Amino acid sequence: MTDEQHFEKGLAMLESMVGQAEAEQIRRGWRELSPDLERFILGFVAGQIWTRPTLDLKTRSLCTVAVLTALARTSALELNVRMALGNGATKEEILEVMLHTAPYAGFPATWDGVKVASRVINDVAKK
Asked: Do 78 and 19 share a structural domain?
């Protein structure tokens, strides 16, 4: 598969998880920071990793939430909590995955992650 095909596959994956309008807003933010960032995230992360067949999207989302919580990557965590909800994860599952990271990554990282997740979950519930 070519880089362009991976990019298109990744774009379709992102749009399927967050909708076309939100995907465009997310892409614009990446492009403003760096056009290459957008291409790498869509082509590699979304186009080659998220499209692999072995794990379903809910499982991928929960794994990603756990890793981003552990690494305290709050910008990416915000997006991935939204995607996890869209991929069928419940509020309880998201928070449980985050709590599970505490003994391994530390309570401060979990605390920050839960704050982000709670804000996102409340925002989504209002819509």
From this structure: no
Q: Exposed, middle or buried: residue 5 (CB in 10 Å: 0-12, 13-18, 19+)?
A: exposed
Q: Which two tokens stand for residue 85?
A: 């909800």
**Distance, CA of 53 to CA of 94 (rounded, Å):** 22
Q: With bands split at pLDDT 50, 70 and 90, how would you rate the model's confidence at 127?
A: confident
Domain edge (last residue) among 10, 30, 53? 53
d(CA 6, CA 71): 27
Q: What residues have CB less than 8 Å from 81, skipping those under 6 apart?
A: 65, 94, 116, 117, 120, 121
Looking at the structure, do residues 40 and 79 belong to the same domain, yes or no?
no
Task: Tell me the residue length of the chain.
Answer: 127
Under DSSP, is residue 19 helix (H, G, I), strand (E, B) or coil? Answer: coil
Q: Residue 25 above 80 pLDDT? A: yes
Asked if residue 3 lies in contact with residue 34, where contact means CB atoms within 8 angstroms, the answer is: no
